[in-house]
Amino acid sequence: MGVAKYIKDERGAIQEVTYQSGIKVKPVYGPEDLEKAGFTYEKDLGSPGEFPFTRSLHPQSYRSRAWTTRQYTGFGTPEETNERFKLMIANGQNGLNVAFDLPTQMGYDSDHPLAEGEVGRVGMAIDSLKDFETAFAGIPLDRIGSGLTINAVATIMMAMYQAVAEKFGYKKEQISTTPQNDILKEMIGRGAWIFPVEHGVRLVGDSIEYAVKELPRSNPVSICGYHIRESGATPAQEIAYAFEIAKAYIGNVTQRGINPEEFVGRFSFNFNVYGNLWEQIAKFRAARKLWAKMLQNDYGVKEKKKLFLRGLFGGGGSGLTKEQPENNIMRGAYYALGAALSGAQTTALCSFDEAYTIPTPRSALLSLRTLEMLM
Questions:
Q1: What pLDDT is recorded for position 14?
Q2: 107 - beta bridge partners?
Q3: Measuring CA to CA, which of 36, 63, 173, 359 is 20 to 30 A from 351?
Q4: Are strands 4-8 and 14-19 parallel, antiparallel or unpaired?
């Protein structure tokens, strides 16, 4: 199905719309529909910044705090990636979203025979702690948070990041990093996993437990509906899979005797934005409400901020085309608008040339400027 399917009468008037999630929608809604659904303002909508956070996490949203921009960046060598990091930060980017090549993601060194042809291809190659030092040299790690887009070996990358930050003179209390670390998403929607399910989930739980005890500013997992959507899920399925994955991680950590109140506020999410604008906005509003109610009702979480669904909304890679790639600039602007109207705290856009190549400095900056213009 495309963005939407329309059912029209003999005169061409729209009678019903079915969006990508398979949900049928009337052309117009009124008070009688809310009454029929049992809608109440406090329970189903609420004021901005108030439970269940349907409208936003903060009372004034972007009037009081702009979103964090994290363009997905990493290619070739650590030196090349460090140069691009500094270019983006110098031009206003206020967070990093780090790409690693496939050998690194799968735990192989660059000189391994299986790594041939893939080294530095879709992200930077990391073989040692020295490579990490080179990649992050000169980056103010107390001010710039880093998302590490890696899963199977996320615990190793977390350790490397902390070791390098401490070598640069930062205390662990200053370190702000979010490893993706979502191994169940890899098993469902992407394929970059190493260990069996049980042990992969245990490693995620280990990193959550460690971060809760040792890294107060870091988020140990970023649960990714994004890749599952890219693999063919509908917008509704994207949220459903992500929440079920989150419940698996919560279950693993609570079995260790750790109360959900202590760690669920550190969960981050990575969701996709492309398709019908209004369906995307509705998806995120519903997700915030469902997440808050699930944590409160199923896990007994009470503290307001720990009920927040926080994360990066953006990308939209499957919506881009190799043909007439300049049109992707407009597509990206619509995706960014969807993220803004959805209340994203952090966002990133696929660059217009990303349908066929690693983004150039020009295309990466165009995406960054698109995000800034919306603020």
A1: 80
A2: none
A3: 63
A4: antiparallel
CA 373 – CA 269 distance, rounded (Å): 24
Domain ranges of the chain: 1-38
The Cα–Cα gap between 303 and 55 comes to 19
Instruction: Read off the tokens for 360.
Output: 């150039």
Task: Answer whether 104's CB lies under 8 Å from 125's CB.
Answer: yes
Least confident among 34-43, 74-83, 246-255: 34-43
User: Per-residue pLDDT for 1 more than 50?
Assistant: no
Q: Work out the percent of the chain whose per-residue pLDDT is above 70.
A: 99
* 152 contact partners, CB below 8 Å, separation of at least 6: 105, 106, 107, 183, 186, 192, 193, 194, 195, 200
Type of residue found at 86 = K
CB-CB contact of 327 with 316 (8 Å): no
- At 80, is the pLDDT very low, low, confident or very high (cuts 50, 70, 90)? very high
Cβ pair 157, 140 in contact under 8 A: no
Residue type, 188: I
Could you say which DSSP state residue 14 is in? E
Identity of the residue numbered 89: I
Instruction: Report phi then psi at 222, rounded to 5.
Output: -125, 105
Task: Provide the 10 A C-beta neighbour count for residue 197.
Answer: 12
What's residue 2's pLDDT?
56
